[in-house]
Amino acid sequence: MTTQTTQRTYRLEQKRRITGEFPGPKSAELAARRAKVVAGGVASSVPVYVADADGGIIVDVDGNSFIDLGSGIAVTSVGASDPAVAEAVREQVGHFTHTCFMVSPYEGYIAVAEKLAQLTPGDHEKRSVLFNSGAEAVENAVKVARVATGRTAVVAFDHAYHGRTNLTMGLTAKANPYKSSPAGSFGPFAPEIYRVPMSYPFREEAELKGEDAARRAITMIEKQIGAENVAAILIEPIQGEGGFIVPAEGFLPALAAWAKEKGVVFIADEVQAGFCRTGAWFASDHEGIVPDIITMAKGIAGGMPLSAITGRADLLDAVHPGGLGGTYGGNPVACAAALAAIESMEQQDLNARARSIEEQVMGRLRRLAEELGANSIIGEVRGRGAMLALEFVQAGTAATTKEPNPAATKAIADACLKAGVVILTCGTYGNVIRLLPPLVISDELLADALDVLEAAIREAA
Ligand SMILES: *Cc1c(COP(=O)(O)O)cnc(C)c1O
């Protein structure tokens, strides 16, 4: 089943090619201009500047072609210039770019909400609100949960990432770089945020079952906060920035069941995992959980900025008219892009495509891990669909202390980049390489990228 589910035609040649110096002279020139005007607090993982991108390829200003295993952080699942998305955007900008849905509404917003009601888990009555960024979606899910429950506490998890605005920084677990560094802190942070342990099978005492990990979190919530004070539990069904952590089976259903019993709003943050990324419309689908509210962004609109919350009608409608919104939320061009991107996902069956990518990548990486042996730097290979990761440890510690190995992780990512593969790292300990290819990448290009990655891992091992 390693054949592609669809035959695509690509605008750009799907081939890796590094010519001459790296970074090239034009990228170096842009880097020099950037240093004079762009704030130092904004960092880029890649030192080259983009001229074009399509399918699984990013072309830089010096004519180098890189294989894209990042999708701009899980955004361009349908490709960076999906013809259907491009056409829908062109069509919409020819009519109107903005009127503000809170002033003079339009159909695209409603059509996106209809689609979200259809695609998100559960067949209950649903309502949606559209925004621009993932962080904004998370903030608004919390706003809704607080009004609907009359409670204030929000429970978030170890290794969580929910964004960089004030409330979402507080919800995010990792301090550096998101909340503070030796240079200073972005705080103070919002009150009434409580952190409880995640289920992280690789770093857990052996055999801690999902239900037991959920019980550990629930006990902490009941003893330290009190269920009656909790407005919402907020969780990524598969954690993204924290390290592509897939909780033990049974963890999410047990939490969801507890939340339901206690009148706590269960919010699934699917900003990174949603929209075919994991081989299902939502990561929640893998364990059959039906969240009260889902937050979405990244993959939703083929690269245009759009985010959404979709949830139970009784919760969303508890908010007074005028209580939710924003100038740009549900921008008509972004809505047109989302409708086209979702249609592309359906027509090309990108859920099946993500599962095929999983099969190809997991097969290769598991064979490599086996060959390098239990004492190698590969601690674990994990993930679902096209949201896959390798966690690296110090050689010889995989079975014992699992000492994180961020140096090898960085060396591998750097070696891949020099060879023409854009690869992202993540993880609380900076020791995870994550693979987030566009779902429309060809099998040949994916295989070539894996050759490069495999060589880099062997070199570091
Ligand atoms: C990226 C991300 C966010 C924040 O989205 P932005 O669009 O960057 O604000 C929130 N939650 C998760 C799970 C994410 O991966």
UniProtKB/TrEMBL annotation:
Its cofactor is pyridoxal 5'-phosphate. Keywords: Aminotransferase, Pyridoxal phosphate, Transferase. NCBIfam families: GABAtrnsam, PRK06058.1. GO terms for molecular function: transaminase activity. It comes from Arthrobacter mangrovi. It catalyses: 4-aminobutanoate + 2-oxoglutarate = succinate semialdehyde + L-glutamate; (S)-3-amino-2-methylpropanoate + 2-oxoglutarate = 2-methyl-3-oxopropanoate + L-glutamate. The keyword Transferase applies. Pathway: Amino-acid degradation; 4-aminobutanoate degradation. This is (S)-3-amino-2-methylpropionate transaminase. PROSITE patterns: AA_TRANSFER_CLASS_3. SUPFAM superfamilies: PLP-dependent transferases. Belongs to the class-III pyridoxal-phosphate-dependent aminotransferase family. Its EC number is 2.6.1.19, 2.6.1.22. It is an enzyme of class 2 (transferase). The keyword Nucleotidyltransferase does not apply. InterPro entries: 4NH2But_aminotransferase_bac (IPR004632), Aminotrans_3 (IPR005814), Aminotrans_3_PPA_site (IPR049704), Class-III_PLP-dep_AT (IPR050103), PyrdxlP-dep_Trfase (IPR015424), PyrdxlP-dep_Trfase_major (IPR015421), PyrdxlP-dep_Trfase_small (IPR015422).
